[in-house]
Each structure stands twice: as C-alpha cells, then as structure tokens.
Amino acid sequence: MPSPQGPARPRLAHTARTTGLGALAVLAVALTGCAATPAAAPETGEGSDAAASAPSQLDNCGTVVEVPEAAPERIVTIKSTTTEMLLALGLGDRIVGSAFQDGPVLEQWAGAAEDIPVISDFAPSQEAVLELEPDFVYVGWESMLTPESAGDRESLAALGIGSYVAPSACKGEGYQPAKLAFDDVFAEITEAGTLFGAPDAAAELIADQQAQLDTIDADERGLTALWYSSGTDIPYVGAGIGAPQMMLEALGLSNVAADIDDTWSSLGWEAIVDQDPDVIVLVDASWNTAASKIELLESNPATAELDAVQNQRYLTVPFPAGEAGVRSVPATADLAEQLAAMDLEG
Asked: Helix, strand, or coil here: 182?
C-alpha cells in the first residue's frame, strides 16, 4: 500500500535481528460484531483509580479488543506512530520488534529506541512477526493487518496475539474521524495506556501535551498554506480531514486543500499556482528532503513565481510527525515558532 504521505519510498538501510524463542503470552481478542464503548481519559492520581475507571474492552476500527488483565510484554510495532507512542509511555522495553519506521525517533527517545530490532523497512511478513513470538501487534495503518502483511486480526487472535490499530487511521464508515482533532490524538493515548497497562503515564502525557498545545497562539495574519508531502509531476498534499489540517488550523493557517474530503490527496500544480499559498510546509524525509522540494519549486517556471517561493516562506516538518500521534503537538509547536519568525514583508 502506498504511504498516505505519497508513493512508496525507496528502501532504507536497516538491521534485521531476531530474538530467542520464548513462550507465547496468551491474549484473548474478541472478534465480534458488537460495539464497545471507547476508553474515556483516565483521571490523574492513583493508579488504582485509573484502573478502576478503565473499560474492559475497546471498539477498535470495528473490532472489539479485550483489555488484557496482564499488560502485554512482547509487542511488535508497525509504523513510527506506534513505536513512538510506546516510547512516550515509557514502554520501549516491551517492543520486541518494529517495522515501517518513517524516520529517526525524537532525540529524547533515541536511547530507548536504539536496541529495538527492526524487522522490515516496510510492511513485515507474518512469518517475521510470528518469529518474535509477540503477545500484541500495534499498527499505524489497518492495511498492516492483512494476510499479506503481519497477518489478519482473526488469525493473530487464534494464536493468542492481540492487535490494535491507531484509531486515526481507521477507514471504515463510522470509524474514520470526520475531521481529526487533538482530542482524537489524546483519546488514542488514553486507549494505548489502557491496553498496555500504563494509564497514569498516558494521563500525564496528555496533560503535558495539552499544556504545550495551550501555549500555541494561532497566527492572525490570515495566511494560506500548502502542506507539500511528496511527488514531483503531481504533488501529494495534506488534505482537509487529517493530521496536516488539524495542525494547520492550530497554527491559524488556511489549508489550500481544505475542501478535499480526505487525509491526503494529489493536487495538481495548476491548482496550487491558482491558490498561490502564502506559506509552504515542506515534509522532510531522508528519501525526499525538504531541500529537494525547494529545488523543484524554484526550478519549475510555474511554481518559481509563487509568492511563497519568491520569498522563501517555507516551514519544515519531519516525515514521522505528519501522521497523528505523540509528535502532533510538539511538531505543531515547532511549526508555530518557525511561523512566528517568518518575515512576511518580502
């Protein structure tokens, strides 16, 4: 499946490692058609209070996931958002393997992440996942839980392996957020804390991120912006209902692709030139750097005339921060600092 931020990227260098064989921890996952009540944010305070208020099951993209009595100890994470979620909750030592990492983790988590085995640069095979004998698989896209990838949820459950999809990535009707909000990000932190036995850490993380979010002042200059993720002939941009839209709104920027009812979308250069955005947010990835995008924008006769290009009005954001997760708030704060320092007089 192509990345929601653009076509499949070139293969990254990685180190494939395996762990010794151990006993499978048994985790029951109820795959029924009934709905369950999603987790409510745990109250800060004693762990027993948070545990008492936690639900016994979660409705995750239409699959009912039983909250285990004993927290999972051998977790495979697929996509940076899930790896970083567990690192932010202080659970990095429970990750027995990761896959499809979009870039380096934040410096504050680098030490905890350095010994996590990387089993694939892209979607791992079910064989590679099962070799690690996990008790849980936590993925950033629904498409990672198929027979062609880590295995479908029913098959994993039959082996005693639980599964959880980042709710912001749910695609089914009634499950995909109509328009992503920071409360949705915080709800995932709450659910992850519930599932993985860290409700107090989740509550503390939410409080810290809410405090940081509250310090961000929306720009009042009435600026428009393009979120340029990838692509050359036809750029791939942040559209109207996903993480880029959520972050741009917090910054006080009007997304030129806001009327596209999707998280990510292709948008032709002609439409972008017609919109002539005041600011361009450049997604920076090792395989498609912000610098390479600037070179393209400045060498193309049409885009070279854009006001943002003429006046070098660029903001940059790391690729892993472009999808909803624990990086959403700090990335928005960083973009706000870049925006506040931007000279609009040129």
From this structure: helix
């993720």: which residue's tokens?
A: 229
Q: 7-32: b or e for each residue (b if 16 or more CB lie within 10 Å)?
A: eebeeeeeeeeeeeeeeebebebeee
pTM for this model (two decimals): 0.86
pLDDT tens-digit readout, 261-309:
999 999 999 999 999 999 999 999 999 999 999 999 999 999 999 999 9
Tell me the pLDDT tens digit for each residue of 165-182.
Answer: 999 999 999 999 999 999
Cα–Cα dist 249/246, whole Å: 5
- The Cα 300–Cα 297 span in angstroms is 6
pLDDT tens digits along 120-139:
999 999 999 999 999 999 99
What percent of the chain has pLDDT above 90?
Answer: 83
| Coil vs helix vs strand at 272 | helix
Short-list 191, 156, 196, 180, CA closest to 59: 191
Amino acid letter, residue 144: M
Query: What is the average per-residue pLDDT within 20-35?
Result: 33
pLDDT of residue 345: 72
Residues 143, 1 contacting (CB under 8 angstroms): yes
301's CB contacts (< 8 A; 6+ apart) are none
H or E element that contains 225: strand 224-230
- In the block, residue with structure tokens 């680098």: 110
> Across residues 150-176, what is the average pLDDT?
97
Kindly list the strands in the beta sheet with 95-99, ordered across the sheet, starting from the edge strand earlier in the chain: 118-120, 95-99, 75-78, 136-139, 162-165
Question: H/E/C letters for each residue in 20-56?
Answer: CCCCCCCCCCCCCCCCCCCCCCCCCCCHHHHHHHCCC
34 residue type, one letter: C
Residue 8 is classified by DSSP as: P
Q: Which residues, other chains included, contact 198 with Cβ-Cβ below 8 Å and sequence gap of 6+? A: 71, 89, 90, 91, 192
